[in-house]
Amino acid sequence: MGPGIKTTTKQEAAMFIQAWWRGTLVRRTLLHASLRAWIIQRWWKQMLVKLMEKKKRLSLQSYAQQEWAVVKLQSWVRMWRLRLRYCRLLHAVRIIQIYWRWHICQTRGFIQGRYNLKESQLNLQLEISLGLQACKVQQCIPLPVNE
């Protein structure tokens, strides 16, 4: 059992150390690879989250813009309908005023006139209208002059 056993034992020990070292290198390489893969996966998940947030923000902005456009359009339609109603009421009021003024003129009558003042006389022209009857008066009135 002499020198042959020791050499085999030394060879086995050397093979054991080499196998251990190769295993350590392989495990270290696999650890680095898995860490790199984990970093890439994490970065990708962050990019997906950012992309989803961007899509949500764009979707929300689009929705808000559409809502604003709908509200603006509704306000324009309401304004147009109110203006149309106001114009109809204004037209009706004008018609009522015209008939009322005509009625007042027919029942009460009106007086129109002109006058001229020349030196010492007053020229007066009056037109009095009562319903269907009209009367015209023209008169010259002398004015007293104090000298």
Automatic annotation (TrEMBL):
<keyword id="KW-0677">Repeat</keyword>
<dbReference type="InterPro" id="IPR039887">
    <property type="entry name" value="IQCF"/>
</dbReference>
<dbReference type="Pfam" id="PF00612">
    <property type="entry name" value="IQ"/>
</dbReference>
<dbReference type="GO" id="GO:0005516">
    <property type="term" value="F:calmodulin binding"/>
</dbReference>
<dbReference type="InterPro" id="IPR000048">
    <property type="entry name" value="IQ_motif_EF-hand-BS"/>
</dbReference>
<protein>
    <submittedName>
        <fullName>IQ domain-containing protein F5-like isoform X2</fullName>
    </submittedName>
</protein>
